[in-house]
From TrEMBL:
Residues 13-23 have a biased composition (Basic and acidic residues). SUPFAM superfamilies: P-loop containing nucleoside triphosphate hydrolases. Residues 228-810 form the UvrD-like helicase ATP-binding domain. Residues 1-10 have a biased composition (Polar residues). This is AAA family ATPase. PROSITE patterns: UVRD_HELICASE_ATP_BIND. ATP binds at G249, G250, P251, G252, T253, G254, K255, T256. Gene3D superfamilies: P-loop containing nucleotide triphosphate hydrolases (3.40.50.300). The lineage of its organism: Bacteria, Bacillati, Actinomycetota, Actinomycetes, Kitasatosporales. It comes from the Bacteria. Residues 442-486, 500-525 have a biased composition (Low complexity). Keywords: ATP-binding, Helicase, Hydrolase, Nucleotide-binding.
Length: 959
């Protein structure tokens, strides 16, 4: 480790006056830096004004130049203003180097001292002094006033140790606020030397910056460690970005801090290369919130996205937890095979909306509206030049589609499945209501009505040039068809089946106002952690099949494909592993082939050219038929990941798809968990996998709309809007970004195989930094996860690093945690704590009630520390624990054991170690995490199951 040579004494006659003198030396330097910064700000402002003037010229060339200048100057100004707070924090005093070469930052590049830099009598002169800050500043002669912390010349500030000091004699951390220097802390790297600076002996002040930083009270946000990065950490931060940088280290060794500083370093090193974005994957939203201020404090924003593993899929957010056994099934590789089967199997269930959720869309020149609601699924769409209405409600599934020129209505309401569609130039109505399945279609040039209502099955269709009515009612089956040139009525009613035909005359037309589609859905209640385990599942939604018959009229003939033929075509189209949604054109082609074969037209021409022409007009004829379009939509719907996931909520169905992959208990638990309202982190990885399995069909590109701002020339008009649109564009690009140039995975030990696949897709061409600690893994099968990690990282070579020093926990707490480590991962080495506080962990047992005891302990710690207190409980207790602490203020928080990952507090209360350890197969490792969160004080509260001894020490923490 970077052992600090902490010189506790000040060299000089009076300790305070030496300190004051050293502070005033640094103040003088800071004043010079500020004067220079002010000059730079004026320059930046001048650039902005100049750019504004050029903008008024209005030629395209001047506009482009102005935009570039405004952009550059804006960034510059913004950075300067931002960096004004505490941006100068370090200084190194160096011996003369081996050669006299200078780098681009104006500093000498030699790492080792020149021969003779140290005289035989052990004295030496300081040949170079460098100040280190958050950005680099040169004076007007291009000499370095401040070196950027990421520049090569700053490396000795972090790398130098008493064992390997290089040229550094003294390393100083400067504390300042705004323009005022508050203090200095020195570490002497060559304590054996008597060094002179400008003729005077080098002064050494304070205990060293590291200790000062570690002793500070914690808030709810992480601080950067830029002033006290240690040598072994610096090696990781500055490791070349090739391939994979792999970092392991115990709790508190600075893995998260190092990962964040590395992101800033990489951007500094090669901004162009990382314009592709850096993604930092964090285990929880709490850790994202805790860490997200660090990069801006290092002067980096915009190009780095910090996202929780449950927020990687746009439009979805993990809000629920799975029980450990459900998580194990969902996160393992086995789930991949289940999802592949589900994606193909879901096609057979009919339109996507039937599978769960609700979809509604309405389009039309005149108007269209659509609504769908259902416990398990509803789909409704309306399209029309005039107006179209479609609504579907159902427990199982309901579908209503309408398309027409002037007006149309389609409704379906069903216990298990109903379909209603109407198409017409004039107007068409299709209504269906029934107990198990029904179809109602109306297709008309001017008006058609079709309705069927049935306990068993009903079908009604009406078609005519002018108007047609068809209705069928019956207990088990009824059939009513109407077709005619003008108008027709047909009804069939009966117990078994009824068929009626008629023909009549009529005419209809309609117009409707424009409106857009809407959809709403209600879903079952949410279950919390552990509740998705055993017990009765809520009623499973009944499956609804896709259409089982295709009927079209082409070349004057009625053609029909029956269920068996359709099934054969589907199987044929699904062959191979191509994404399901991309196979629709292939399925469509196979349908047309089958219809073409049935039409007998193939034999009409022997001339290949004429035959091809005939075939293409046949295809055109069929594919322009509304009934064909509607059929294809229902028979090969575009599947969404959410729809397939919702389909898996049906236990019977999931059982089919997971046969011989998941056991019945797992099927029950997974299906049950998927019926909750919301997603877990594991569901998010499943959604992402499904997106890859299903694919996204190519959509016709939207025409770029003309931007009226392109025509403007005056900067006054342009600036605010321009800036806004630039930012918007950057945000949009960041949102649309699905792949990154560098991916950093924090707490990598926790990623499940399915999560590794999800993260892997975001860094297929990236370089990687992976930081983690196997001893803190909450995933039950670390070997399987390691395999998945290796697959995600591919064959890229790994550079491995180990961090060995615990900067968070005092030795007293680290020692206690090491006992659990020995149980959780026998043989693994705990990191060594860098400091000790002399305060032993406190043990207590439940007094009146668990809640009251914990509350009293938390209140006690709040009195003892200035910063935060964390109360860590088993996951199933976290809501209860929040109630125990009500009213104690913002400095204290209740956390489930899994939520505590990566966080830290001044003091912690760990509640019932046995309960935490018993909660999952990885429980001991989770307990190890819980015990290593405190920077100052730890209290352990034991309940009965902890079997505390006479001093309150629980069984798990005894020697
Ligand atoms: N060089 C340093 N100077 C000052 N503070 C440091 C240094 N290194 C680490 N720390 C502090 O130590 C604490 C632990 O760091 P961090 O959270 O990055 O560790 P970690 O290895 O990610 O821990 P865990 O595995 O438990 O999540 C933080 O408060 C961090 O600021």
């Amino acid at each position: 480790m970077a052992a600090q040579a902490q010189q506790e004494t000040a060299v000089g006659s009076d300790h305070d006056s030496v300190r004051d003198r050293e502070i005033s030396v640094e103040q003088e330097h800071l004043d010079r830096v500020y004067r220079r910064l002010e000059e730079k700000i004026h320059e930046a402002e001048f650039l902005m004004n100049d750019a504004a003037k050029r903008g008024q010229v209005g030629t395209p060339g001047a506009l482009a130049e102005r935009d570039a200048q405004v952009f550059r100057a804006g960034i510059h100004l913004n950075r300067l203003n931002n960096e004004f707070e505490d941006f100068l924090f370090g200084r190194i005093d160096l011996l003369l180097g081996k050669d006299g070469k200078k780098g681009p930052d104006g500093a000498y590049t030699a790492v080792e001292p020149a021969e003779g830099a140290v005289r035989d009598d052990g004295t030496a002169d300081i040949a170079e002094t460098l100040h280190i800050g958050r950005i680099g500043v040169l004076d007007s002669e291009y000499a370095p006033l401040v070196i950027d912390w990421r520049a090569p010349a700053a490396a000795p500030f972090y790398r130098s140790t008493p064992v390997d000091p290089g040229r550094v004699v003294r390393r100083r951390v400067i504390r300042s606020k705004g323009r005022r220097v508050l203090g200095v802390e020195d570490d002497l790297m060559r304590p054996e030397l008597k060094a002179f600076l400008d003729g005077g002996e080098l002064a050494v002040i304070g205990d060293g910056a590291l200790m000062a930083a570690l002793g500070q009270a914690r808030s709810h946000t992480m601080r950067d460690i830029v002033a006290s990065i240690q040598a072994e950490q610096d090696l990781v931060i500055r490791a070349p970005a090739a391939s994979v940088t792999y970092v392991e280290g115990g709790p508190g060794t600075g893995k998260t801090a190092v990962a964040l500083h590395r992101a800033a370093y990489l951007l500094y090193q090669d901004r162009r290369r990382y314009s592709g974005g850096i993604l930092i994957v964090s285990p929880t939203p709490l850790l994202v919130a805790y860490t997200e201020g660090v990069l801006p404090s290092l002067g980096e924003e915009g190009q780095v996205a910090i996202r929780a593993i449950g927020s990687l899929v746009d439009g979805a957010e993990a809000t629920l937890y799975d029980s450990p056994s459900t998580a194990r099934a969902k996160g393992s590789y086995r789930m991949l095979r289940v999802l592949r089967k589900a994606a193909r199997g879901a096609l057979e269930l009919g339109p996507a909306g039937m599978l769960g959720g609700a979809d509604g869309s309405g389009t039309g020149a005149g108007g269209g509206s659509a609504s769908g609601s259902g416990a398990s699924g509803a789909d409704a769409s309306g399209a029309g030049a005039g107006g179209a209405d479609a609504s579907g409600t159902g427990t199982g599934g309901a579908n209503g589609t309408r398309s027409g020129r002037s007006a149309g209505n389609g409704t379906g309401s069903e216990m298990s499945g109903a379909e209603a569609s109407g198409t017409g130039v004039g107007g068409a109505n299709g209504t269906r209501s029934g107990r198990s399945a029904g179809n109602g279609t109306g297709s008309e040039m001017s008006g058609a009505d079709a309705s069927g209502s049935e306990a068993g099955e009903a079908e009604a269709s009406g078609s005519g040039t002018s108007g047609a009515d068809a209705s069928g009612t019956g207990t088990s089956g009824a059939y009513g068809t109407r077709s005619g040139r003008s108008g027709a009525n047909g009804a069939g009613a009966g117990n078994g089946s009824g068929v009626g035909t008629a023909a009549a005359n009529g005419r209809g037309s309609g117009t409707a106002p424009a409106s857009s589609g809407s959809a709403s859905a209600t879903a079952p209640t949410q279950l919390s952690f552990g509740d998705d385990g055993d017990g009765e599942s809520p009623a499973a939604p009944a499956p609804v099949g896709p259409p089982t018959r295709l009927r079209v009229v082409a070349f004057g003939r009625r053609l029909e494909l029956e269920a068996a033929e359709l099934e054969r075509i589907r199987r044929n189209a699904l062959g191979g592993t191509a994404p399901v949604n991309l196979l629709r054109p292939r399925a469509r082609k196979l349908l047309l082939d089958a219809l073409w074969a049935q039409s007998g037209a193939a034999t009409r021409h022997t001339d290949p050219e004429l035959a091809a022409e005939l075939r293409s007009s046949f295809d055109e004829d069929v594919t322009s038929e509304d009934s064909f379009i509607a059929f294809l939509d229902a028979w090969w719907p575009e599947l969404t990941p959410r729809a397939v996931l919702a389909a898996m909520a049906d236990e019977r169905r999931l059982g089919r798809w997971a046969r011989r992959i998941l056991n019945p208990g797992e099927v029950r638990r997974v299906a049950r968990s998927l019926r909750r309202d919301g997603h877990s982190v594991h569901d998010i990885a499943m959604l992402d996998e499904l997106q890859a399995i299903l694919g996204t069909p190519a959509r016709p590109r939207k025409k770029r709309e003309l931007d009226p701002l392109d025509q403007l020339t005056g900067l006054e008009e342009l600036m605010p809007v321009r800036e806004e649109s630039q930012r918007e564009r950057a945000e949009r690009l960041a949102q649309e970004r699905t792949e990154y140039a560098h991916v950093i995975v924090d707490e990598a030990q926790d990623l499940t195989p399915m999560q590794w696949r999800m993260v892997g897709r975001r860094g297929r061409h990236a370089t990687w930094t992976v930081v983690g600690d196997p001893a803190q893994s909450s995933w039950s099968d670390p070997d399987e996860a390691a395999e998945a990690r290796d697959e995600a990282l591919g064959t890229r070579p790994r550079r491995r690093f180990e961090l060995t020093v615990n900067y968070r926990n005092p030795a007293e707490i680290a020692e206690l945690a090491a006992k659990v480590l020995a149980l959780a991962m026998p043989g693994s080495k705990a990191p060594s704590a860098v400091r000790s506080t002399g305060v032993e962990p406190r043990f207590t047992v439940v007094q009146k009630s668990l809640g009251e005891t914990v509350r009293a302990e938390a209140a006690r710690l709040l009195d003892l520390v200035d910063g935060t207190v964390g109360v860590v409980v088993a996951m199933q207790r976290r809501e209860e624990a929040a109630r125990w602490l009500a009213g104690l203020g913002e400095r204290v928080v209740a956390l489930g054991s899994l939520e505590a990952k990566g966080l830290e507090y001044d003091a912690t209360v760990v509640v019932s170690p046995a309960e935490i350890a018993d909660e999952s197969p990885a429980g001991l490792r989770v307990l190890y995490v819980a015990l290593t969160r405190a920077t100052q004080q730890l209290t352990v509260v034991s309940a009965d199951r902890d079997q505390p001894d006479g001093s309150g020490v629980p069984d798990l923490l005894r020697d």
